Amino acid sequence: MTILHIDSSARTQGSVTRDLTTDIVAKLGGDVIRRDLIEALPQITESWVNANFTPADDRDAAQRDTLALSDSLVDELKAADIIVIGTPVYNFGIPAALKAWVDLVARAGLTFKYSETGPVGLLEGKRAIIAVATGGTAVGSEIDFATGHLKHVLGFIGIHDVEVIAADRVMAQGEEAVKDAKAEIERLAA
After folding, report:
1. How far apart, in whole angstroms, are the C-alpha atoms of residue 35 and residue 8?
2. Exposed, middle or buried, 99 (CB in 10 Å: 0-12/13-18/19+)?
3. Domain range spanning residue 144?
4. Does the pLDDT value for residue 190 go beyond 70?
5. pTM of the entire structure?
6. Closest by CA position to 7, among listed 39, 43, 42
7. Is the dihedral of CA 140, 79, 121, 100 positive or negative?
8. Which pLDDT does position 56 carry in this prediction?
9. Burial status of residue 142 (CB atoms within 10 A of its CB: 0-12, 13-18, 19 or more)
10. What total number of domains does the chain contain?
């Protein structure tokens, strides 16, 4: 089993989500591909869009270079059986670093395709676990734009088996929220 372990918290020390993803990966076991988004990913640019929409066989060297990181991120997703994503909720949504990752992996022809009935995800048969921490937003509430967004994006690329482990409202509930999330991790099955 191969796990793609993604962390998106801006904090390297004292991050609840980094702690949770580490516990999840340890609980599941297997080979791990590590992607830490603390190092910012590039934003989508006009050059990237033009390269992406140029047929692969027609791309020049500069276009291939422009897409190289995106291709690598897609390859990581394809290689993984389970994707473990750690995300705090920043201002009701996902961090910009995680949004950049989404933009770089949601690629027509690679992770989804268009059909007569609409988009079809190409990464079927994978599982995702999202470890989320919030200061005051209740996960699943009408103001939680992070978990719904990630579930939708993952489903869009074909990953429908998605579980959320939440340490929500940490500022209000304190260590109890983290303790509850860790109890959920103990119930995970590989």
Report:
1. 9
2. middle
3. 2-186
4. no
5. 0.95
6. 39
7. positive
8. 95
9. exposed
10. 1
